[in-house]
Amino acid sequence: MHEFSLISALMETVLESAEQNRISKVTRVKLIVGEFHGALPEVLSFAFEALAADTVCSSAELDMEIKKGLLRCTHCGHEFSNAFFINRCPVCGARDVDILAGRELHIDYYEGE
């Protein structure tokens, strides 16, 4: 499960920042996850809960926002969004598309005391 390594790296960032800012209890972590990233939200939540134990994040709520994917046809320039990754433009049928959004995985912010 690569979600554990992803959350571990993100958690390390939060823990370092909390220490630097003398935050003794993190109450909420907002995570942005792109729909094309490939990480499963349920597994990210499970990993966060497991890795947060015995840290200043142990009682933190993980708030995940799923960022919609955005594609652009390299042939006609049409931009479109689709819940399932397809590599065909719905306007011209070309197979070459660029992913403009939807691969994100980052911490938007965290709150603490």
TrEMBL record:
- TM ranges are none
Residues reported to bind Ni(2+): 2
The protein's matches in Pfam families, at most eight in alphabetical order, are given as: HypA
Judging by the UniProt lineage, the source's domain of life is Bacteria
Biological process terms in GO annotation = protein maturation
Q: What are the record keywords, sorted?
A: Metal-binding, Nickel, Zinc
Q: Which GO terms describe its molecular function?
A: nickel cation binding; zinc ion binding
Binding-site residues for Zn(2+), renumbered to this chain: 73, 76, 89, 92
Family named by the database record: Belongs to the HypA/HybF family.
Looking up HAMAP family in the UniProt record yields:
HypA_HybF
Summarizing the function annotation, the protein's role is: Involved in the maturation of [NiFe] hydrogenases. Required for nickel insertion into the metal center of the hydrogenase.
Spell out the protein name for this chain.
Answer: Hydrogenase maturation factor HypA
- Source taxonomy lineage? Bacteria, Bacillati, Bacillota, Clostridia, Eubacteriales
The gene for this chain is: hypA
